[in-house]
Amino acid sequence: SFEGRVEVYHDGKWGTICDDQWDDRDAEVVCRQLGLSGTPKALSWAHYGQGSGPILLDEVQCSGNELSLDQCKKSDWGQQNCDHIEDAGVSCDPFTGTEVLLCQSDAGTVRLAGGHSPGEGRVEVYYNGDWGTVCDDGWTDLGAQVVCRQLGFR
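That's the NETR protein sequence above. Prediction below.
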């Protein structure tokens, strides 16, 4: 339920995505779009089997911060130079990763990582194409309250 070949629906038909340029940042967007948490992992060379029908996207290059594949840089719909042996896949495995929660806000994307329960963990922020940690210099309960509010906790 959290991994498989990635297929997209466009212009009345389902199709696959070519794995050219396919990486974990693209997987992160797919997992987010599907509402899945866990460790996003891109898989190539039809890891989950070859699809059938059209190959609808190629050269997908997400920064990892997008909310859906539509927002990523990619080829025009149907413009590709692939065969189904190159169908892209994704795993959003909730059992292997430390990522627990993501939220999108005006302040950027924030997540908790490495905690033992959904409401705790290391604070990480997404900035300029990469995830990074928050230094604890000057960190107070007020900062923690802001993060908790961003993540939807009281």
